Amino acid sequence: MTQLDRKLQAQALLGRRVADDRLALADEVLSAALDGSRPLTAGERAALQDSPLTLRRLRHLAEQRRAAARPAAWRRLRGESLLPVAVTTKLVCLVCRP
Question: What percentage of residues in the chain have a pLDDT greater than 70?
């Protein structure tokens, strides 16, 4: 499966709406699955697949983890390119708008 196929599949799963959808799994369960300390059971995987809201929450938690793991000097807003931070007596961040 190509990266484009994965993105299209993710958009299809995340974009659908289910009546009376609610979070099916707690943040602790999703976080444990993300860090690999506890795999999801078959029932939890089924609940995750059946709940677009829970899938969106999982994606949000994953994005938070990626952002926290990135060095502060390279964090940026979506759509902006970021030049390296020059460290002198004060921190200067050079952001260039595309």
Answer: 69
